[in-house]
């Protein structure tokens, strides 16, 4: 097998997904393992390297054909230093020099990126935003991540922490957020938080078809809320609709800040498809201005759960190509 | 006089300011005229050209020493076409090809820019942000304009209308804005709107030392509110403080989107100096997160009312230099 490949890793709080990705974004091999972050960063990074090396040999790829490795991780990061600064989803990880460790353990050149930025890069590279200009991807997961692509490049910001739309404040003195702020978007619209809120309401006595579900399973997720809302459940519909209104508000604010051509809705909540997209579009049109035609196209991700790992590999490809360009030896097959 | 100069124009709803600006941002001649936009765009543009030509000859500048002209105007603009699309402050101006008209009437190469972007460029070029990286300037005027400088370039956006922070929504279903949205930042924090709001409150019967001022003059501005607040007036203090809280909220949201090194507060409201800056900084620290050290430095503009005209000229200088660079004849003195 002489086709060149990049390795992508999507390091999440629950799972670590590792994939071999071709230069067109196609996944040629993929494996998912549980994270077990509590065992310590050095141990987990060691296992990550073993997984990478295993995946390369299992797929009969020569090390020479691997152009590099990209990894997307929860932030905040010290990107230029190659550090994970700290992460709510990786307890105990502080100032982990993950880029250097992975480089040493795999022998590959490593690109480190915020996980939502990696997903945004994937949408731009081979996803819903492929044929579009400036774009922002919102990853509607446990929290709300985001990445902005401007002129083909990830918007980084002076402190390397730009496009954190999940922590823009949408209610002055609003609901407390784990980040220490009050009124962050993700408190009103992330799948994790709306499920939490719905459970609270039912425990306080609100009538809902989700009541028996809660009793039977002890919990439910945002997809259960969407399904109940679709079936006519009043509480579920109110909560789902409020989340969509806040996501639409965020879309208006993204329109007036980054002013992108396209907005991609990704992450777990996007599995609800048109029931998410239709509501968000409807609330967006109701909320945005009418004085200038600069509305972004709002669409769903078409990479599903693999945007993060594809984008991470895409960044390894990008680094490889720009290195090749610098040497005037653009020999990528 | 053989020193090279650029012409800057700041076209406002009330006044047109025209200046000759050296390559270090120094103003060598300046004139301000009333706008009288109702007389029609072609007439006003004709007068603008006369003012430019007059200023050049009065200052004994040879036409050959004028490197170009920059103009900052209220938006929204069609920048790449050189059009003023429409403007709330210039009634009746629609699709005005101002760049072409000014080029024809002055014989100069013309750069068109949104007025707040021009002010932001001035702060970056020779103002408060001179020695800093990525930065955002908020122009707290009748409305709230903004411009973001990223990597030394103005953030434009796909639709050429980025960094309109004044129209980001800070209250879902909040106060109606002239743009057609509800809850825009500028409804809660612009000098024009807080003065309007204070006047409403007094007319509804609120006690305030501004009551007699209103009776005597029929109106007052945001500086009067700041002075009354400083002197201990309770209504004025509440209104001023609320405005500062919303400006601080906007600063938090700018931190999490553009993630700049610096935030510059400019425009009429910045004349209140530390009474603005102190309150905004205090509310910013109270509202922003504590999990990552990426707080922008918040400062006041040091260009006062001339940021717009200096920035416009700065953009003419920038175009001149990049043109010179392209021709490999970097002969700017």
Condensed summary:
Chain A has 333 residues and is an alpha/beta fold. The first copy, chain A, has ten helices and 13 strands. The model of chain A is unreliable at 325-333 (pLDDT under 50).
What is the 3D form of chain A? globular
The end-to-end span of chain A amounts to 13 Å
Write down the CATH topology of the largest domain in chain A.
Nucleotidyltransferase, domain 5
| CATH homologous superfamily label of the largest domain in chain A | ATPase, nucleotide binding domain
Number of strands of chain A: 13
The name of the CATH architecture of the largest domain in chain A is 2-Layer Sandwich
Strand order, biggest sheet of chain A?
Answer: 3-2-1-4-8
Rg result of chain A: 20 Å
Supply the CATH class of the largest domain in chain A.
Alpha Beta
* Helical content band of chain A: 25-40%
Q: Oligomeric form of this entry? A: homodimer
Give the number of helices of chain A.
10
Average pLDDT of chain A, to the nearest integer? 93
Most extensive contact: A-B, 50 and 50 residues
Order of helices and strands of chain A: EEEHEEEEHEHEEEHHHHHEHEH
Q: How many discrete structural domains of chain A?
A: 2
Helix and strand content put the structural class of chain A at alpha/beta
Per DSSP, what share of the residues of chain A sits in E-state strands of 2 or more residues?
Answer: 15-25%
Low-confidence stretches of chain A: 325-333
Biggest sheet details of chain A: 5 strands, mixed
